[in-house]
Design brief:
The chain has seven helices and no strands. The protein is an all-alpha fold.
Length: 178
């Protein structure tokens, strides 16, 4: 098969999702992001900590909208974000004078380590990148970034996913833990 012919695809689009699934995805995402955003904007808005990062939005898509995906399972959600946050902070500390290089090292290394640890979670790549390209508030956190916002936010979102995704009879979460 030639290089370009692979790009034509060949399969068909997946079937449409029913209203119930859409509604439960919306409820889960709303309830999962709400406490994390509330912490960030109301409870701790006067301190130098950050409680919400962009990659949480992508995690919400997986853990509330694609609950059966292997990439959405707790091991991947928690492990992928934590591994990637650590790698992102290290990349920033080692290569901060060269943010273009630190960015590439952070994302590429996070993907490789998530593969090795069986914690592949696509938003983890963004978590690693945010550690490098984030604001001074993010950079000032150093390794605290792994705890707040990453681990704290991910645990809150996981608890909500466990509750919301098991209310509906048609849903089950998680598919596996380890």
């Amino acid at each position: 098969m030639s290089f370009f012919s692979k790009m034509k695809g060949g399969g068909q689009s997946p079937p449409a999702v029913g209203f119930s699934e859409i509604a439960w995805s919306w409820v889960g995402a709303f309830l999962g992001i709400t406490p994390v955003a509330f912490l960030n904007y109301n409870l701790f808005s006067g301190d130098d900590l950050v409680y919400i990062i962009g990659s949480f939005g992508a995690s919400a898509v997986l853990i509330y909208g694609a609950v059966r995906s292997p990439l959405a399972q707790p091991r991947n959600l928690v492990g992928g974000h934590i591994v990637s946050a650590i790698i992102g902070v290290i990349a920033y500390k080692l290569f901060c004078p060269f943010p273009w290089f630190a960015s590439a090292v952070a994302v590429a290394t996070a993907i490789a380590v998530m593969h090795v640890t069986k914690t592949l979670h696509p938003p983890g790549g963004a978590t690693a990148l945010i550690a490098v390209i984030g604001s001074e508030k993010i950079h000032d956190l150093g390794f605290l970034y792994v705890v707040i916002p990453v681990s704290t936010g991910v645990i809150i979102m996981l608890v909500v996913a466990l509750i919301v995704n098991n209310i509906a009879a048609s849903r089950k979460y998680p598919e596996f833990w380890l």
